[in-house]
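TASK: fixed-backbone design
INPUT:
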């Protein structure tokens, strides 16, 4: 049970006090009415004695009475009706509510911190997400700190309103005060009348009520004197007369009304009556009272407000009827008015100004009244009770003539006369047995009650115990139960606790009252007393069981209060049973609700919610929240109701769809009512649907236009594309690249990469830039957690805008969204947006900024409603038919908002950020609206989707300026510049429009002379013409606009050649178009447009080429530089693509140093055709160019009728682009090894000179045509492949071969050397320093008969291939390595010097004349001279033999 203000002893003592009746004359009542009080009300605050009282027991032992209280009541001659008592108890509970603003009581019970107080409603309802934080510090008192004043008020009122019964005397009057005014003509006569009236009431059979303790009731005569009248002497004389008549101990002169009411109005006199009068209990005896409800600061109570009324029937009206009687005959208490007044909660909230009490009384008068009560008790009441106890004791003993001591009494003492004996059958049903008033058993009971009232508990217990045995023997169960009840209480209250509390007595009494006597009122009293006693002994479990046992269907209010107290018992145990507490609070709340106590019901549910909240018991939470919402709505606490229903909806409900639909409708209804209270207030937050704020995406710009016919629009960016971080990084790098080129190699510090679509993965740390008059699309992700559809209507964005003129540098005022601001920002609304059950759906909402400034998107605003008939029937999903057309709303919708609050990324850079949790900003919803900018749209015409590797295709690009500003500086950047070209300076020679070039070749061609077939046709071109070697990035390409400016609304078409990538497969090629406004802006410097082309390439040709030195030293011009070029062309195309055959139409070379001279193919076939998987081998002679200018020399060897001019677009474009990409690749590779090369500078130069001898800078372009059969039509495709030859004798490929990964090898550990080994030239490189050639006749005729020695002149040509001076040594001493060589080649001798030492300058050719001597005919190999070479400034480090590539055979004939 909850803690009470009083201790259990004080509570029981105050529950059973001596009752004193008050009978007043009309004039006396008038005197007290001047203070708005009746006589009984006047003395009530002073009825507790402030000092100890002494009396003697029957054994003449002194007995001390402490803290005695008496009760003075007006006489009421009709018992109160049960209906009136129920009404009174209901009102007492309803007006006693937790006070606002008191300190919260917090109890720690197990793992729970429970707030049990007036603030429990606020602290436990679900809208307090962090309710634990709102709780105060834990209460450390030993007792449970929760108080329930409504229960105490109920209990007090219940005990005081219990009607007197015949089986006990506790509620019987012990004495009667007769009160007469001194101002009456004959006060003594009036006393006589009152005395007779009292006698008539007590002894006449006309009145059965009230009950009197003994026939000889004490009468105490009180003379009431109004001091303000001033007739003191008369009063004194009357009092003297009274003392003579009634004795000094039987009368009293009470002087009141010393204060003049109109004087000293500002003087503050305490009002001790308010706390008593606000408890509208049975003691408020005035028949002419109306009851109104007022509010007090601490508690709300019922207050009786006395109103003077005319009394026509004199004294008798004072006690005709009970004020609680519903059918009041005099009409002074109208039951309907009373009900209206007491149940009106609005009236209860009125000010407690009330009527002042005791206005005519001074503090002296207060002391006089207190003195009067003390005198009455000391001199009148207690002596009378003492005498009565003695008389009863003597009476009982004298009847038996036994020992005077009751303490040794046995059952024999009290076996006096009783009712005639009954049969066994009659005894079994004697709950209604009645004893005559003079029966000894009743006398014992009467004596026990008197002893109990004056706190003589030991004697009382003995008497009760004795009476109990008598009653049980007689089977008088009602009497026995009463004796058992009071015996248990007396045993508990005995000082020193000589015996334990006999709880079984109470158990028997309760069972008897309830089951045999069917008297729930007495059973309830038993339970209230016993539970309080058990609680004081910390027997909370037994107390809870007792309280729960008395709950029944006959009284919801009683059941609710007892269940609530039982719940408090559970939580106050040594091991708190928190869930039992919560469960019984729910039961109590239910019974409170049935009893009409809505506020208490709400409080109980809220307290229980603290236990059930967040434990996963969702259905229980839903039930509690639903009830809280209902009760709050009934009490017009609309905010609480909205919050409770809101919690049901957002709590991932496991309810069936029908129940969820009901919850939703209830919420909408309550919400609508709440919104109507403040129609002009801010829009409240709606709980549904859920918004995934972090998934919000913001898109800047217009939606992309779809393709029209042959036109294909640039893909750009759209909300339908998924975010790809790798792709996003590529676009950022492309933009940085072009910005770097524009700004001469540096990126500006204020550079901000363009982001068209912002999402959770993008960098949102900076304010995004949007352009005026271009839409901003916000994609909001909604999720419906319910199993019923939600209908959002009139859905739009909520925003705030601050106009700013970025050029004028002054700020405007911030504008909230409103109807007048549509000229600043246009807002697009979605009329209807349906979200099906448990569906996640995105809505795209647009804003159209019309001014520059700062825009802040705050959230969304919409009407939330449900769809009629949303619950599925017979397993059919209702959402199927709700996809199109207008949705049928059930007419219930509410307008509200939800904010978009996006948490930025967690910061993790500094140490402080790593050790704490900090989040950066996310500004995707705060764009800056900038000035007008141009807007480019790009369309591609005849753009292919599939190509052969190396295939050249011509397409057209259309650039359109759709804005109102001219654009300039149009550039395109791509990671694959070798894929496309706009043509160099010669591009104007090609057809300009798609229609004009439909059947033309993509190349520039010239008809060739048949005689020039297989002979090189020369031309030259500068790399600068094709944008290579100008110092810029090869990836950034200037788009050749005719006037360098594209005016508003203008469009231009430009040709674009495409070359299929060399690697087969699907290629994604990104184009980034960069452009600027003619007018420079402070915020946005440029704009970009993205396009991703997807090309699928299939295999075509594979080309391998090798270059080697020709042994023939002299060419046509007599120079020693010429080479042979071998080209292998293989058709690796598969026939699936429909390619019939490839024709090699031309092979071109381009180099600054070398050129093709002629084809040396032996085959006479003019055209080289390759079917699938066929291979062709071509051989060409290459010679060094005459001029060493910067220009590239192009040599074309034509195999057909038309020469493709390889130095013009697009052939040269793609060649130069492949050249730059090849250079880039090799440069990166060589750069990585740079650190390992530098050991000695001179050493490096030497190596470089030697390496340069074997290098060759020759590039081959193989041009081909492919014949394709497609749809019974033959198409001719064109293409070109590039091979870059760098090293003599090293094979080069048109496309690098894929290196197969080696199989798993064992791991080897090696320790790196401290000093890197300097790289040595390879023998192959060294052998290329000097090129040797023998010139001799192929056959020589000699007559060996004439001359036996045959001398043949031989010329040895030595050519220095390097730029350095080389020392050469020729050794002619030939020593055959094996005998086999002698047999084959024969032996001959060189005549003359056997060794020559020469020095050759750079590129020098030296001729050395030798003579060979033969002695007989045969075939001889002259290639025996050994040539050694070294650089002049080196010692012998690189000396090595120069080997010839092939034998030099000579035939010697005899003639």
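OUTPUT:
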């Amino acid at each position: 049970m909850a803690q009470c203000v009083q201790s259990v002893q004080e509570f029981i003592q105050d529950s059973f006090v001596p009752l004193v009746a008050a009978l007043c004359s009309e004039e006396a009542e008038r005197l007290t009415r001047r203070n708005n009080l009746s006589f009984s009300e006047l003395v009530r605050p002073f009825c507790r004695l402030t000092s100890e009282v002494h009396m003697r027991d029957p054994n003449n032992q002194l007995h001390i009475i402490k803290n005695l209280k008496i009760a003075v009541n007006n006489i009421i001659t009709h018992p109160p009706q049960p209906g009136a008592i129920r009404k009174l108890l209901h009102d007492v509970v309803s007006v006693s509510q937790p006070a606002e603003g008191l300190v919260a009581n917090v109890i720690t019970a197990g793992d729970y911190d429970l707030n049990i107080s007036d603030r429990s409603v606020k602290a436990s309802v679900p809208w307090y997400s962090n309710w634990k934080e709102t709780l105060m510090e834990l209460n450390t008192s030993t007792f449970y700190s929760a108080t329930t004043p409504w229960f105490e008020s109920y209990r007090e009122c219940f005990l005081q309103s219990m009607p007197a019964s015949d089986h006990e005397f506790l509620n019987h009057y012990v004495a009667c005060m007769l009160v007469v005014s001194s101002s009456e003509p004959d006060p003594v006569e009036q006393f006589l009348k009152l005395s007779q009236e009292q006698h008539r009431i007590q002894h006449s059979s006309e009145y059965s009520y009230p009950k009197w303790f003994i026939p000889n009731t004490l009468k105490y005569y009180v003379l009431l004197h109004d001091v303000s009248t001033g007739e003191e002497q008369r009063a004194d004389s009357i009092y003297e007369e009274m003392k003579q008549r009634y004795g000094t101990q039987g009368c009293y002169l009470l002087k009141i009304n010393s204060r003049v009411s109109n004087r000293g109005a500002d003087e503050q006199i305490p009002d001790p009556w308010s706390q008593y009068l606000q408890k509208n209990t049975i003691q408020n005896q005035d028949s002419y009272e109306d009851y109104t409800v007022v509010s007090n600061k601490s508690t709300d109570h019922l207050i009786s407000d006395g109103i003077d009324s005319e009394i026509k029937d004199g004294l008798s009206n004072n006690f005709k009827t009970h004020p609680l009687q519903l059918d009041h005959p005099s009409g002074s208490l109208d039951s309907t008015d009373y009900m209206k007044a007491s149940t009106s909660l609005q009236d209860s909230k009125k000010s407690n100004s009330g009527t002042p009490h005791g206005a005519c009384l001074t503090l002296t008068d207060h002391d006089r009244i207190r003195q009067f009560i003390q005198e009455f008790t000391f001199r009148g009441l207690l002596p009378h009770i003492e005498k009565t106890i003695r008389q009863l004791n003597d009476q009982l003993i004298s009847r038996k003539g036994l020992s005077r001591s009751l303490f040794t009494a046995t059952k024999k003492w009290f076996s006096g006369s009783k009712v005639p004996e009954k049969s066994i059958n009659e005894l079994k049903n004697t709950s209604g047995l009645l004893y005559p008033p003079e029966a000894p058993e009743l006398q014992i009971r009467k004596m026990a009650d008197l002893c109990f009232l004056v706190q003589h508990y030991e004697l009382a217990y003995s008497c009760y115990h004795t009476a109990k045995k008598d009653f049980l023997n007689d089977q008088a169960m009602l009497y026995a139960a009463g004796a058992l009840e009071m015996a248990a209480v007396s045993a508990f209250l005995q000082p020193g606790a000589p015996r334990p509390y006999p709880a079984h007595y109470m158990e028997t009494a309760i069972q008897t009252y309830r089951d045999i006597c069917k008297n729930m009122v007495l059973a309830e009293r038993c339970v209230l007393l016993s539970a309080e006693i058990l609680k004081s002994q910390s027997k909370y479990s037994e107390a809870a069981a007792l309280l729960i046992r008395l709950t029944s269907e006959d009284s919801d209010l009683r059941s609710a209060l007892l269940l609530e107290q039982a719940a408090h018992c559970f939580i106050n145990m040594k091991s708190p049973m928190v869930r039992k507490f919560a469960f019984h609070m729910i039961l109590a709340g239910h019974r409170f609700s049935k009893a009409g106590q809505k506020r208490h019901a709400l409080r109980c549910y809220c307290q229980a919610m603290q236990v059930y909240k967040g434990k996963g018991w969702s259905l229980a939470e839903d039930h509690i929240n639903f009830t809280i919402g209902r009760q709050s709505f009934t009490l017009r606490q609309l905010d609480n109701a909205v919050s409770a229903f809101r919690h049901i909806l957002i709590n991932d409900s496991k309810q069936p769809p029908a129940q969820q639909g009901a919850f939703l409708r209830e919420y909408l209804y309550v919400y609508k009512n709440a919104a109507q209270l403040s129609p002009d207030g801010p829009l409240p937050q709606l709980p549904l649907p859920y918004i995934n704020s972090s998934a919000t995406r913001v898109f800047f710009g217009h939606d992309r236009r779809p393709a029209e016919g042959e036109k294909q629009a640039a893909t750009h960016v759209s909300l339908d594309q998924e975010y790809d971080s790798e792709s996003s990084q590529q676009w950022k790098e492309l933009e940085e690249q072009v910005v770097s080129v524009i700004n001469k190699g540096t990126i500006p510090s204020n550079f901000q990469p363009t982001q068209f679509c912002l999402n959770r993965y993008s960098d949102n740390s900076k304010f995004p830039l949007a352009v005026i008059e271009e839409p901003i699309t916000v994609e909001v992700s909604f999720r419906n957690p319910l199993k019923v559809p939600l209908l959002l209507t009139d859905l739009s964005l909520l925003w705030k805008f601050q106009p700013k003129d970025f050029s004028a540098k002054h700020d405007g005022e911030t504008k909230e969204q409103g109807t007048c601001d549509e000229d600043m920002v246009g807002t697009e609304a979605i009329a209807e947006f349906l979200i099906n059950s448990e569906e996640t759906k995105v809505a795209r909402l647009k804003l159209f900024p019309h001014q520059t400034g700062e825009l802040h998107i705050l959230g969304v605003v919409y009407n939330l409603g449900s769809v009629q008939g949303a619950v599925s029937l017979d397993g059919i999903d209702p959402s199927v038919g709700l996809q199109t057309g207008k949705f049928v709303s059930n007419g219930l919708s509410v307008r509200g908002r939800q904010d978009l609050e996006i948490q930025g990324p967690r910061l993790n850079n500094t140490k402080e950020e790593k050790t704490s949790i900090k989040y950066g900003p996310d500004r995707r919803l705060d764009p800056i609206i900038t000035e007008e900018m141009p807007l480019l749209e790009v369309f591609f015409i005849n753009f292919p989707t599939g190509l052969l590797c190396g295939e050249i295709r011509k397409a057209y690009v259309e650039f359109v300026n759709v804005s109102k500003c001219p654009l300039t500086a149009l550039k395109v950047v791509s990671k694959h510049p070798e894929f496309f070209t706009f043509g160099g300076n010669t591009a104007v020679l090609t057809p300009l429009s798609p229609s004009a070039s439909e059947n033309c070749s993509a190349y520039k061609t010239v008809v060739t002379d048949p005689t020039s077939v297989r002979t090189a046709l020369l031309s030259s071109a500068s790399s600068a013409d094709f944008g290579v070697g100008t110092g810029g990035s090869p990836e950034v390409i200037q788009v050749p606009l005719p006037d360098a400016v594209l005016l508003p609304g203008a469009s231009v078409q430009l040709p674009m050649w495409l070359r299929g990538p060399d690697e087969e497969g699907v290629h994604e090629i990104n184009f980034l178009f960069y452009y600027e406004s003619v007018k420079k802006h402070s915020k946005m410097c440029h704009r970009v447009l993205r396009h991703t082309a997807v090309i699928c390439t299939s295999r075509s040709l594979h080309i391998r080429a090798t270059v080697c030195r020709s042994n023939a030293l002299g060419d046509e011009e007599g120079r020693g530089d010429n080479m042979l070029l071998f080209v292998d062309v293989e058709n690796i195309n598969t026939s699936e693509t429909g390619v019939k055959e490839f024709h090699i139409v031309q092979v071109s070379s381009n180099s600054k140093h070398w050129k093709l001279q002629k084809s040396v193919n032996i085959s006479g076939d003019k055209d080289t055709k390759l079917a699938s998987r066929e291979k062709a081998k071509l051989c060409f002679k290459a010679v060094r160019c005459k001029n060493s200018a910067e220009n590239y020399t192009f040599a074309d060897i034509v195999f057909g009728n038309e020469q493709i001019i390889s130095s013009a677009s697009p052939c040269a474009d793609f060649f130069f682009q492949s050249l730059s990409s090849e250079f880039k690749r090799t440069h990166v590779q060589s750069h990585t090894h740079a650190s390992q090369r530098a050991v000695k500078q001179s050493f490096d130069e030497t190596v470089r000179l030697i390496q340069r001898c074997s290098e060759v800078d020759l590039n081959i372009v193989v041009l081909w045509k492919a014949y394709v059969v497609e749809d019974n039509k033959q198409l001719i495709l064109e293409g070109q492949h590039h091979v870059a030859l760098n090293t003599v004798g090293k094979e080069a490929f048109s496309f690098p071969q894929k290196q197969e990964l080696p199989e798993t090898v064992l791991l080897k550990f090696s320790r790196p050397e401290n000093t890197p080994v300097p790289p040595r030239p390879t023998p192959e490189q060294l052998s290329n320093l000097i090129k040797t050639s023998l010139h001799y006749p192929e056959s020589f005729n000699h007559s060996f008969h004439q001359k036996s020695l045959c001398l043949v002149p031989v010329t040895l040509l030595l050519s220095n291939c390097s730029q350095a001076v080389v020392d050469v040594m020729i050794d002619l001493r030939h020593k055959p390595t094996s005998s086999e060589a002698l047999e084959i080649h024969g032996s001959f001798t060189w005549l003359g010097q056997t060794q020559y030492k020469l020095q050759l300058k750079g590129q020098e050719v030296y001729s050395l004349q030798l003579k060979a001597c033969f002695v007989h005919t045969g075939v001889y190999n002259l290639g025996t001279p050994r040539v050694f070479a070294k650089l002049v400034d080196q010692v012998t480090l690189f000396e090595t033999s120069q080997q010839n590539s092939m034998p030099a055979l000579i035939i010697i004939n005899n003639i």
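COMMENT: The longest strand covers residues 790-805.
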